[in-house]
Amino acid sequence: MSTPLALLDTDVETDLRITVRELLADRCPSDAVRAMYDGDRSIVGKLWKALGVDLGLAGLLVPEDQGGAGASAREAAVVLEELGFAAAPVPFLTSAVVATTVLLETAREGGSEPVSGLIGALASGEGTLALVVPFSTARNGRLATAMVDAAGCLSGEVTSVAGVLEADTLLVPVADGDRVALYAVEAGAVAITPVSSLDMGRQLADVRLDGAAGELLSGDAEAAIRTALDTGSALLASEQVGIARWCLEETVSYLKTRRQFGRVVGGFQAIKHRLADLYTAVESGTAAAHYAAAALAAGDPDWLVGASVAQAYCGDLAVYAAEEALQLHGGIGMTWEHPTHLYLKRAKADQIALGTPGAHRAALADFVNLPAAEA
Fold this sequence. Notes:
This protein has 375 residues and is α+β, with helices and mostly antiparallel strands.
């Protein structure tokens, strides 16, 4: 009989949560995030240095013997929950989780020597990486559209990629017959075109590979890439919970002070019912996200089930919480100056990232051998 997974924060995780939240409260004001929609991205580099280098979060998942913190998915989930709570515009998910997992899995499968160098750069915070696949790619989605010639030069275009604007090295999946090879390409060697994104805190970009020189990391990296995408989806649920929790707490705080018809708005029974429903949903999402992270950290055989359960629920939860926050704030919630729209945009963008809730429900049906409904 397997040991039940502990879902409550350990003392280490609590300390990490407090540290990250205090830093974000000091260094990630909502007006600086809002300025990104006007083209001012100055907050990204400074905030990522504080988190990635000063706190060492860039190498959180890298083993200690490779220069990292040697933490697990549980600690990464804590960080992502706090990043969601602050709508922080940093490449932690794309670099410190997804790209890092690709490299670690590649190294475990006997990847080339350059893999170790890239892991070391990640661990020290000197390098930021991004996996060049569309941010909407689900676990069974197509991974490679790029091609490589005999000289090792890459060609092709990949659209709607997250994290490339902050990355200095790109991990490019390349179609090689029936296999998917993995190449490292310097970001400066390719054409990167930013696109107007719903969530400018995680701006997407199109990547065009016009004969860029690539360094082969693995000739067969499909399993490593899919594991990284699954890991990303499992931990993205924690970011979505952070979004939902901010929306709940901010809305409750506002409704305790907003008065209408001579009464505090939060005292109206209909409002209480909506907040109670929202609270219940957030607590349920928190349990699902914590389970996904704990199962992943423990190497539980059912961690993929936990990941799909968490994504199927938390993807919709974050949007629901943000929409409730917008409505219950009334007119002020519709203003550009109020931060609610930042959370709604992040929630909507996250809802289709790494597979929609519907895609994860379909995957979950396969995992538990649930037959499809007859037409």
